[in-house]
Amino acid sequence: MDPAPLMGGCHKERKGGVDKLAIEGGVKLKGEVTVSGAKNAALPIMAATLLTDDACVIKGVPFLRDTNTMVKILRSLGKNVEFENGVLTVTGSKKLNHVADYKLVSTMRASFCVLGPLLGKLKKAKVSLPGGCVIGNRPVDLHLKGIKLLGADVDIDSGYVVANADRLKGAHIYLGGVYGSSVLATDNVMMAAVLAQGKTVVESAACEPEVADLAEFLIKMGAKIRGHGTPIIEIEGVKRLHGASHTIISDRIEAGTLMIAALITRGDILIKNVNFKHLGALIDKLEEAGAVITKPDDSIRVRYSKPLRAVNVTTLPYPGLPTDMQAQLMALMSVTSGTSVITEKIYPDRFVHVAELNRMGANIQKEGPHAIIQGVDVLSGAPVMASDLRASACLVLAGLAARGKTTVSRIYHLERGYENVEEKLKKLGARVWREKE
């Protein structure tokens, strides 16, 4: 899906699926780089603008395929949207559409978070079941459970979730799932509940910083929310929400990816616009491996000083180690001496990148939700293919460390979640360029 046309023409757009990223590895990355706003905070906050007829201004929105898909969805639902230089302005329309079309929602799982605000605002919603990265089963049962408990009637009809309610009423909702809490389900329930009658208590809510950022935006709009950032969120419904201005938090996954870029290339990078409190589990694991990490104001400096040690990794809901960093850590461990084990407890099938790393000379064996990695001295450049967003970052990191040339196909996956990644890597000294598929 090509990016939506933007107001102001401030970005050069590329056609989807025609480029691959070429990397000549072996350069130690050094210098300074600034992290963009968090995609996973921006998308639900953009969806939350559906809850009001007033104007909303959102700053620090990264220019990505996913954010531009959400722009298209908001426009298809009747909103007026301008997006220029990281500032998104959303204004109301005479009539809000309650149907989120398959052609847009099917391309990006996070777009399913329009369900909650449409239901909260209009008391009806028809939203296509979501698509996105191919990383295993990611059901929407917790989303549906939550809105049903708020009083909605829900049916699945021809690939759409159809929800209707005469009125929404506060409820006690337990959102724990097989693999823990759900970020998007927490977002959807919270956005539906802010305009419900009475008090809603969400137990086993997701604690991720992106959920807390959405809550902060809703509070600025007039919502009454307490406990966000903890497993129990309390919401007192209000009659209406007004417009608000908000700045998106920085992207902790981009920051983490850049931290690993410093280590896998044996470099030294100062990463700006970082909240290190959001990266505690990753910092702890990288320091265990032997990384030298310091924390100047709103920044993190990551430096390779001696050979790293192999470490075992288990992904967990926040504040545990993010599943969105699993693939990048695997790339690092593949060139770290010793044996490490990565256990994926969020999406057990999220190991498509293993085969591609092994094509580059890595020694990785998958056993169920575990990947056993025997570190090698060096990877060899090779043509590889990205299967999803974080796998694409993993392969780029591997290419930066490899001997020779690596080409990563399907980099539209990378463009879904990393803003100006090519330019940022070049600024740090990387030899990267685009080639036609």
Highlighted features:
437 residues; alpha/beta; UDP-n-acetylglucosamine1-carboxyvinyl-transferase, Chain; four-stranded mixed beta sheet; 24 strands; 24% strand; globular; disordered N terminus
Overall description:
The strands form 6 sheets. The protein has a 4-stranded mixed β-sheet with strand order 22-23-1-24, covered by helices on one side. The chain has a 4-stranded mixed β-sheet with strand order 2-15-17-16, with helices on one face. The chain has a 4-stranded mixed β-sheet with strand order 4-5-3-14, with helices on one face. Helix content is 30%, strand content 24%. Helix 6 runs parallel beside helix 7 (209-220). With 437 residues, the chain is of the alpha/beta class. It has 2 domains: 19-36 and 250-436, Enolpyruvate transferase domain (UDP-n-acetylglucosamine1-carboxyvinyl-transferase, Chain, Alpha-beta prism); 39-247, Enolpyruvate transferase domain (UDP-n-acetylglucosamine1-carboxyvinyl-transferase, Chain), CATH 3.65.10.10. The radius of gyration is 21 Å and the shape is globular.
